[in-house]
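Student:
Attend to each token:
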Amino acid sequence: MDLCILHIDDKEFGIPMESVREVLIRPRVSPLPLSPQFLEGVTSFRGGTLPVFEVASFLTDTDPSSNSNRDRVVVCQDPSALVGLRVDLVDRMEYSSPVPEKETSITSGLNETDAKFLRLDQLLKHMTQHMKPSLT
């Protein structure tokens, strides 16, 4: 299985390549009023609108406002959503071990690397739960 390795600060996260649609470099992101801090805004994507998330607050210990050098947005497709994740750098890796079984955590370790396996479905669920107070 090929993994897309997302670099966020000094951490690496792997997601299956089949979940990645495209990588945007320096897209223009329009902020949304009254949105939570981790929803950076929206950008135009193939004739539609793509939400762009700053996921560092969910995955690392850093302040999400320190994303000044994150100039890439990885467009990820989940069965329920199409979203953009703000990252520092994107790599590719071949991963031969079985992917960790489904669980409810956002990440789990990969045996062959220091990277963590990113569960896009759990990340989206977690972000949705954090959004609801802002929307009511």
Observations:
- The radius of gyration is 14 Å.
